[in-house]
From TrEMBL:
One Pfam entry name: APH
Domain of life from the UniProt record: Bacteria
Organism: Halobacillus naozhouensis
Protein name per its UniProtKB record: Phosphotransferase family protein
SUPFAM superfamilies referenced in this protein's UniProt entry, alphabetically: Protein kinase-like (PK-like)
Aminoglycoside phosphotransferase domain segment(s): 17-217
Length: 268
């Protein structure tokens, strides 16, 4: 963390913030508090301007080319699974999906629309890499389902998708401001990619129509089919990611959730 001390000075108390990249830190000096990250996307500035993430305070470039961003470190809490049912979650996700500013910026950064075929190709390539690991029948059944329906879930409208709408990434500040944080995996894709995982994970199925109305869309069979397809594909992708990192307990937990989803919807 010498680079942080070089930027901030020795009076700041710096502690790791966790996360998958290991490149995020909290810094505190008296009443001043910052959240720092190395090599955040330039996309962060637009997210801050839109009020979707905590305020971006400053950006600095190091001699080696790395970029350090500092955001306002807010008091607050991650949403619980129960709090994910609140209409404000639907409203913020709708704002993100309908933002032309976010879409224009991500496209300028070189992100091209992600197609179902590309999603499936990535999953199958990862499965080849994991070939030496004991295969699980649920994963093969899920891939067969994705292959069977890949042509049916094409959708012309693409938006900015967060791609990890887990409740841990939703922050409610002590000032009652809701944020969606950790945008490292953002993509341009079908909005059903975000909707599928969120609804399958947190919203009882009998409440889906009401939730989607709060989000601002009229539910229909094609939307539900796309949501299911992306929920299965994302579940598989997360399982593969954890397995590649040797995090087999977390992979097993997600495997159980995937199996339950597939049984409930008669995919297996």
């Amino acid at each position: 963390m010498n680079w942080l001390e070089h930027i901030l000075g020795s009076n700041w108390k710096i502690t790791p913030a966790g996360g998958s990249t290991g490149e995020a830190y909290y810094a505190q000096n008296g009443g001043k508090r910052l959240f720092l990250k190395r090599n955040s996307s330039p996309f962060l500035a637009v997210l801050s301007a839109e009020g979707i993430v905590p305020k971006l305070m400053w950006t600095k470039r190091l001699e080696n080319g790395d970029v350090i961003t500092a955001q306002d470190w807010l008091e607050g809490h991650e949403l619980s699974a129960e709090e994910m049912k609140h209409p404000r979650v639907a409203a913020l996700l709708s704002k993100i999906h309908h933002s032309s500013e976010l879409l224009d910026m991500l496209m300028r950064l070189g992100k091209h629309p992600l197609t179902p075929s590309e999603v499936l190709t990535d999953i199958k390539e990862n499965q080849k890499i994991l070939g030496q690991v004991e295969p699980r029948i649920e994963m093969h059944q899920a891939i067969q389902y994705l292959e069977k329906h890949v042509q049916e879930v094409e959708f012309a409208r693409h938006v900015v998708c967060h791609c990890d709408t887990n409740h841990n990434n939703w922050l409610l500040s002590s000032r009652d401001q809701l944020y969606l944080i950790d945008w490292d995996n953002a993509m341009v894709a079908d909005p059903a990619l975000d909707l599928g995982m969120l609804l399958y994970s947190y919203i009882p199925q009998e409440d889906w129509n009401r939730w989607l109305n709060q989000y601002g869309v009229e539910p229909n069979a094609h939307l539900f089919n796309r949501m299911t397809w992306y929920a299965v594909s994302q579940s598989l992708a997360f399982i593969q990611w954890h397995m590649m990192r040797g995090e087999y307990q977390e992979a097993s937990i997600r495997m159980i959730k995937l199996r339950d989803m597939m049984v409930h919807h008669e995919i297996i």
